[in-house]
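Run log // design_07
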């Protein structure tokens, strides 16, 4: 019943910006920890950022100072603002929702290239 749908991915030039969105259906964002993870071909899935039910955030070392996670509980949407992107940010980005277990979206491709 839980559904997470990512959007906003695409091609962006190095140094540019992109905003990803995750629409969460049948989830109360006020009690879930919402996160963004990414996975590049041949790599493990890694944490990008998460925001807990109280609004506290945490970021992976590789994106600190460049990415910002936020959420709108009423709109049931989680955002990832990506600034100053680098080629190494290229990956499939996944939205997650964690409470007792973890739910995942299908992912959205982000490609940073000229």
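design_07 sequence
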């Amino acid at each position: 019943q839980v559904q997470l749908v990512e959007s906003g991915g695409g091609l962006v030039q190095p140094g540019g910006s992109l905003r990803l969105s995750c629409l969460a259906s049948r989830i109360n964002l006020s009690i879930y920890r919402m996160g963004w993870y990414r996975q590049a071909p041949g790599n493990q899935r890694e944490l990008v950022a998460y925001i807990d039910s109280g609004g506290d955030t945490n970021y992976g070392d590789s994106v600190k100072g460049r990415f910002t996670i936020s959420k709108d509980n009423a709109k049931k949407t989680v955002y990832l603002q990506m600034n100053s992107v680098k080629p190494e940010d290229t990956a499939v980005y996944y939205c997650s929702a964690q409470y007792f277990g973890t739910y995942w979206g299908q992912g959205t491709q982000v490609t940073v290239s000229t």
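The chain is about 0% helix and 55% strand.
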